[in-house]
Design brief:
Elements (H helix, E strand, L loop, with lengths): L2 H15 L13 E5 L5 E6 L8 H9 L7 E6 L11 H8 L3 E6 L9 H7 L3 E4 L3 H7 L1 H9 L3 E9 L17 H12 L3 E5 H7 L15 E5 L19 E6 L9 E4 L1 E2 L2 E2 L1 H10 L4 E6 L1 H9 L5 E7 L22 E11 L2 E11 L2
Parallel strand pairs: 3-4, 4-5, 6-13, 6-14, 7-8, 7-13, 8-9, 9-10
Antiparallel strand pairs: 1-2, 1-3, 11-12, 14-16, 15-16
Length: about 350
């Protein structure tokens, strides 16, 4: 066994898994590479859509008889149950592989146990290679399994002084074309895009993915508590992508489709909204706005990742990117761990995750 060859194969599997982002929910993204008995790659694949063959099956089909005596590198523990497809652990056994290396254990109680099944069949099994990379690529699905709700990524665009628009309400465009294109990538990787009533009124957003060939359109969600922001003819009501309007249980509306949720403060219950989306198969949410809705999500502890697009622009006045998040003193500030900074044209994209309150 060549440790470097193992790393190379698993890194390729992680790259393959990413091709399924936005298309596999409620299933995970998974990549697989199969090498022959001499260690040469002979097959690869990824989970392309829910209900379709899993990554291992694609890779084994490509490898054919050359998989016998070889190694399978998989980003997630091979599943051990029969759903819309058969168990991948058994497929690997039937293919005659002698070794399986997987990065992350499967936390889904319905599917776990694949490693034990493989070992019982006499196959050498090891776990943990490039686990951090594989987990990062599958963070939405893993979060949904562990927390019982969708993974939430809050995206915003702002000037360097933290303004999301000018004093007169104009905001097009604060950030560059490169940043705006990158937002469409985030949409394409998400199962749902969520905005609030303020954004719906001010911008009449479309929220569909543009410029990415083959993208699966996310569910467009407007949180419209009083059912007054989304009007007939709104762009989110076209047929470019599915749409869901979240309203209060007692709201009066003839528009649809709607989901009625309990009130919480001046808006809707964030946990109830996420539960409703999770029930619909949504495993990843892109929260796009605006500041009031973002504050509600943060106050509810329901933001898992923050992506800020910062433009080299100053306004000095205008709305801030974040409204009340329930933080009244510096000791309660939500501290962040910056995980990535990237230049996009003239802008800076900063990715961060919440750590702990206080320091």
């Amino acid at each position: 066994m060549d440790p470097q060859a193992d790393i190379t194969a698993m890194r390729r599997a992680v790259e393959l898994a990413a091709r399924g982002l936005g298309a596999t929910s409620p299933n995970p993204v998974v990549g697989c590479v199969v090498t022959d008995a001499s260690g040469h790659p002979v097959g690869e694949g990824w989970h392309q859509r829910a209900g379709g063959p899993h990554a291992e099956v694609h890779a084994l089909r490509a490898a054919g008889v050359l998989a016998r005596g070889g190694t399978a590198y998989v980003t997630l523990e091979p599943c051990n149950h029969t759903g819309r497809t058969g168990p991948c652990a058994q497929a690997l056994i039937d293919a005659g592989v002698s070794r399986v290396v997987y990065a992350v254990g499967d936390p889904n109680p319905q599917a776990t146990g694949g490693a034990d099944t493989l070992r019982a069949a006499g196959i050498e099994v090891s776990q943990g290679l490039l686990a951090e990379e594989a987990e990062a690529g599958n963070t939405a699905w893993l979060t949904s399994v562990r927390r019982g709700r969708p993974f939430v990524r809050w995206k915003y665009a702002a000037t360097l002084d933290g303004r999301s628009a000018a004093a007169d309400g104009t905001s097009r465009w604060i950030t560059s074309a490169e940043s705006r294109a990158d937002v469409h990538r985030l949409r394409a990787e998400s199962d749902a895009v969520v905005v609030g009533s303020g954004t719906a009124r001010a911008d009449d957003p479309h929220l569909a993915v543009r410029g990415i060939e083959g993208a699966v359109q996310p569910l467009r969600v407007v949180v419209d508590t009083e059912a007054t922001a989304v009007e007939p003819g709104a762009r989110v009501l076209d047929d470019a992508a599915p749409t869901l309007i979240a309203v209060a249980e007692d709201a009066d509306t003839a528009l649809g489709p709607v989901v009625r949720l309990p009130r919480a403060g001046r808006g809707l219950s964030v946990p109830a909204l996420l539960d409703a989306l999770h029930t619909r198969g949504v495993r990843s949410v892109l929260l796009e706005g605006g500041p009031t809705l973002a504050g509600s999500f943060l106050a509810a502890g329901a933001v898992d990742q923050i992506v800020g697009y910062l433009a080299p622009v100053l306004l000095g006045a205008g709305p801030q990117v974040l409204a009340d998040a329930g933080i009244t003193t510096i000791a309660d500030a939500l501290r962040l761990d910056v995980t990535e900074t990237v230049r996009l044209g003239p802008d800076l994209r900063v990715t961060a995750v919440p750590t702990t309150k206080g320091a």
